[in-house]
Amino acid sequence: MAAPRLTLSVFVLMLAFITLSEGLRGTGPKKCCFRFHESPVQKERVLSYIKTSQRCPQPAVLLKTVAGRQLCAKPSASWVKDLISYLDAKPGEVSNL
Fold this sequence. Notes:
Layout: H1 2-24, E1 46-51, E2 61-65, E3 70-73, H2 78-89
Antiparallel strand pairs: 1-2, 2-3
Organism: Trachinotus ovatus
Subcellular location: Secreted
Signal peptide: 1-23
């Protein structure tokens, strides 16, 4: 009779430990991208950008447009690199959201 209780106790302790350790990791990323906008966006149409979390499965850049939309783009695309350089160079504005 002691063996089932011991097994149950060990199981409950392991479950509590796993729950606690997962909680300490914090919440997951707020936004990840799974589909990407492939065609270039006009520079004048983009207000700002942010890079997604490193915890996302794929690296991405979120572009905030003047229309209030957010578009996912691949940071390796040449047009995205040019757009980021353009936004970073704009005086008096913060490029990151």
